[in-house]
Amino acid sequence: MEVVRMDADPSQTYRPEAGAVPGKPKADFRNYTDGTLLDRVYNTYLLMHTHQTVDFVRRKHVEYGACSHRRLSIMEALDLLDNLVDESDPDVDFPNSYHAYQTAEGIRTAHPDKDWFHLVGLLHDLGKILALSGEPQWAVVGDTFPVGCKVQKSVVFSDSTFHDNPDTRNPLYNTEYGMYRPHCGLENVLMSWGHDEYMYKVMRFNNFSLPPEAFYMIRFHSFYPWHTCSDYMHLCSPEDRRMLPWVQEFNKFDLYTKSEDLPEVKQLRSYYQSLVDKYCPGQLYW
Q1: Rounded to an integer, what distance in angstroms lies between the CA atom of residue 214 and that of residue 228?
Q2: Which of 209, 145, 212, 146 is nearest to 178 (CA)?
Q3: Using the 8-state DSSP alphabet, how is residue 95 labeled?
Q4: Is the overall model pTM greater than 0.70, yes or no?
Q5: pLDDT for 83 beyond 60
């Protein structure tokens, strides 16, 4: 049966000006209505929205919370992403390692005085190594959303992908607040499991010497319904609202530096190695 996809990404904010990315019109970013990659993207979200439940997320927190699965340096983890193409991304069809450098270099150009912010660009998707360790991509990539409460319309493909998710039949999880209290804070909200939360756990466990804003950007950079569509504000604390502009600033570079014009990684590697040595050196626990 053909699926009619009428619930594409509603986000219109933080679009770049025309010509900001050479050869790519601004309307083509996050295009969830047509394109050569749409079937792949839609099927990834269908699986995600079917299987990401409260119970599933809680199990993953237990499974990965101790960061006891492997030892890797940052650069070793980044090299692994040479082997990963994100199946949820409608914008690119090249290895995720290039996207890391594109994001970092965009931030470096706009914020030359904040070397820690440059490193955030490099780090932000490293949690996707989960997809190279046996986890399906629907449990690793894509936009995140809170589980345990009503799904908002701003979630990509919200109207056509949640019909087989068992949590949608649990009355406790289908009100505006669900299992949460008003303004409880995002730190107390269970997000759909993926690379954001995993990398945040790795950073905390290994005591990265980065400012709180860096941890926050990593943890919530895929939460588009919140940082781009202003949904789920009823769950946010004052600290969430204070951090929101940082996540929005990061989002510009995460999305709109994507281009088929790939960076010369060999020329950039020594600079980013120096940042790794400064903020998160050595063999880390993952």
Answers
A1: 18
A2: 146
A3: -
A4: yes
A5: yes
Q: Can you tell me whether residue 13 is helix, strand or coil?
A: coil
Q: Is 187 exposed, middle or buried (0-12, 13-18, 19+ CB in 10 A)?
A: exposed
Give the number of other CB atoms < 10 A from CB of residue 63: 12
Computed from CA positions of residues 17, 22, 25, 28, in that sequence, does the dihedral angle turn out positive or negative?
negative
Q: Which two tokens stand for residue 120?
A: 């955030």
At a CB cut-off of 8 Å and minimum separation 6, what does 97 contact? 78, 79, 81, 82, 84, 265
What angle (nearest 5°) sits at the alpha carbon of residue 138, between those of residues 137 and 140?
Answer: 60
| Token pair belonging to 178 | 């669900």
Please list the alpha-helical segments (H only) found in the chain: 38-51, 54-64, 74-80, 96-110, 115-123, 195-205, 212-220, 224-227, 238-256, 265-279
The tokens for 38 are 């749409």
pLDDT tens digits along 188-200: 999 999 999 999 9
What is the 3 state secondary structure string of 17-53?
A: CCCCECCECHHHCCCCCCCCCHHHHHHHHHHHHHHCC
Both tokens of residue 261? Answer: 């014009």
Residues 6+ apart with CB under 8 A from 209: 278, 279, 280
Residue 25 has pLDDT above 80, yes or no: no
Overall size of the chain counted in residues: 286
Q: How confident is residue 142, by pLDDT bands cut at 50, 70 and 90?
A: very high
| Tokens at 159, concatenated | 């109207």
Nearest to 221 by CA among 194, 239, 259: 194
Judged by DSSP in three states, 285 sits in strand
CB neighbours of 166 closer than 8 A, spacing ≥ 6?
Answer: 53
